[in-house]
From TrEMBL:
<feature type="transmembrane region" description="Helical">
    <location>
        <begin position="83"/>
        <end position="105"/>
    </location>
</feature>
<keyword id="KW-0813">Transport</keyword>
<feature type="transmembrane region" description="Helical">
    <location>
        <begin position="46"/>
        <end position="71"/>
    </location>
</feature>
<feature type="transmembrane region" description="Helical">
    <location>
        <begin position="193"/>
        <end position="215"/>
    </location>
</feature>
<feature type="transmembrane region" description="Helical">
    <location>
        <begin position="356"/>
        <end position="379"/>
    </location>
</feature>
<keyword id="KW-0812">Transmembrane</keyword>
<dbReference type="Pfam" id="PF00375">
    <property type="entry name" value="SDF"/>
</dbReference>
<feature type="transmembrane region" description="Helical">
    <location>
        <begin position="7"/>
        <end position="26"/>
    </location>
</feature>
<feature type="transmembrane region" description="Helical">
    <location>
        <begin position="231"/>
        <end position="250"/>
    </location>
</feature>
<feature type="transmembrane region" description="Helical">
    <location>
        <begin position="319"/>
        <end position="344"/>
    </location>
</feature>
<dbReference type="InterPro" id="IPR001991">
    <property type="entry name" value="Na-dicarboxylate_symporter"/>
</dbReference>
<feature type="transmembrane region" description="Helical">
    <location>
        <begin position="154"/>
        <end position="172"/>
    </location>
</feature>
<keyword id="KW-1003">Cell membrane</keyword>
<protein>
    <submittedName>
        <fullName>Cation:dicarboxylase symporter family transporter</fullName>
    </submittedName>
</protein>
<keyword id="KW-0472">Membrane</keyword>
<keyword id="KW-1133">Transmembrane helix</keyword>
<dbReference type="InterPro" id="IPR036458">
    <property type="entry name" value="Na:dicarbo_symporter_sf"/>
</dbReference>
Length: 416
């Protein structure tokens, strides 16, 4: 937590420095704004490339391990099926709410940023008009795993990972255990790298913000206020939907559940990590009356497959970046993006800012400038607080609902 606070402070300091430097260039040396912007933006480019560097191995290892460990579904049967139905439904609803509200509220239309590279804009227009079902299939089915890794084709990596994970799960523990353990170690090492890379984020913020302010002046800050307002409104709508569904299933016991998980919710909000509250959440759900076997199966699975707050944020942020660069996306393209995010997000664990990795990959896939992610990075900490807390709520509701459906929810809470 101390590290996260230091990083947050470093990003805020970098933001202030970037604003100051960019403001001085914009007002005092306008003739130098363009070359200055081009050079200092390289800091942001380095950060983005560092993030892109780990996308393929991170998605591959985490997804293979998650799928391979799902062999437990055979033992639990109906519980696993109901859990997956909940996860898929909740993910689609979360993504759809983000998509619907970002199109309605249009936070990115407060101001437009020019796409610097004319050739890139031309390619973008071509790919936008030509994106079809055939292109989607080609993006989805890998011709070669190594080519998919080399070109960061995330969806192709997801397809291979799912097939490989299922094959491992059906090999039997004797053969699959050492492979799964190896990939689990690699996945944890890569997640460690994510932590290291995030320490370069302040430089990326400094370069990106200084470049934007130098070229566009202070009107860029209208974007931050509108973005936060609209995102938290969208989050409130998602909470309303989740709580309504929870009430339909649990009745008045929903309020008891909320009392039980208030501490995990607050911890997730302050640390921006839903994983930080995992042990406490297990304890409180068992005290609430959920069967410990159901909790021990659904909750870990939910931390990979049921991140409602992160799911909603991914559609919201991706379309916002497109809006701020003045890129119009058709309804078909947006629905395709929703389905792509539905698949790609399943390979990401509930660690702080992990959803940014998927947003960068998705933006690249749909021709949206991935450097746009640096524009929202300074306020991402505040967004992360809200989405981490929402992830905890979603997983608590999923576990309680499946326990109730299975007749495994005790009416008298346990005090163990």
């Amino acid at each position: 937590m101390k590290g996260q606070n230091k990083l947050f402070i470093a990003i805020i300091v970098a933001l202030i420095l970037g604003v100051g430097i960019g403001g001085v260039i914009h007002t005092q040396y306008p003739e130098s704004a363009e070359p200055f912007s081009k050079n200092i933006k390289l800091l942001g480019t380095v950060f983005i490339r560092l993030v892109q560097m780990i996308i393929a191995p991170l998605v591959f290892t985490t997804l293979v391990v998650g799928i391979a460990k799902m062999s437990d579904i055979k033992m639990i049967g109906r519980v696993g099926t109901k859990a997956m139905l909940w996860f898929i439904s909740a993910s689609l609803v979360s993504l759809f709410i983000g998509l619907m509200l970002v199109n309605w509220l249009e936070p990115g239309h407060v101001t437009k940023l020019p796409i610097q590279d004319a050739a890139a804009a031309e390619d973008l227009l071509k790919s936008s008009k030509g994106f079809s079902l055939e292109d989607f299939v080609k993006h989805m089915i890998p011709k070669s795993l190594f080519e998919a890794f080399a070109t960061n084709e995330v969806l192709q990596i997801v397809v291979f990972s799912i097939m490989f994970g299922v094959a491992l799960a059906n090999l039997g523990e004797e053969y699959s255990k050492p492979v799964v353990k190896l990939f689990d170690i690699i996945a944890h090492a890569i997640l460690k790298m994510v932590g290291y890379i995030m320490w370069f984020a302040p430089f990326g913020v400094l370069g990106s913000i200084a470049a934007v302010v130098a070229m566009n002046g202070f009107k860029i800050f209208e974007v931050y206020a509108v973005y936060l307002r609209d995102f938290f409104f969208a989050l409130a709508v998602l909470w309303l939907v989740l709580l309504l569904v929870g009430y339909l299933i649990l009745g008045n016991r929903l309020f008891e559940l909320l009392r039980r998980i208030k501490a995990p919710l607050l911890i997730a909000f302050s640390t921006t990590s839903s994983e930080a509250v995992f042990p406490k959440l297990v304890e409180e759900l068992e005290k609430f009356g959920c069967n410990n076997r159901v909790v021990s199966f659904i909750l870990p699975l939910g931390y990979s497959f049921n991140l409602d707050g992160s799911m909603m944020y991914m559609t919201f942020a991706s379309i916002f970046i497109a809006q701020i660069y003045g890129i119009e996306m058709s309804l078909g393209q947006q629905i395709t993006m929703l389905l792509v995010l539905m698949l790609t997000s399943k390979g990401i664990a509930g660690v702080p800012r992990a959803s940014l990795v998927i947003i960068v990959a998705t933006c690249s896939m749909f021709g949206i400038p991935p450097e746009g992610i640096a524009l929202i990075l300074p306020i991402d900490h505040f967004c992360d607080m809200g989405r981490s807390m929402t992830n905890v709520l979603g997983n608590a509701l999923a576990t309680s609902a499946v326990s109730k459906w299975e007749g495994q929810l005790e009416n008298t809470p346990q005090e163990v």
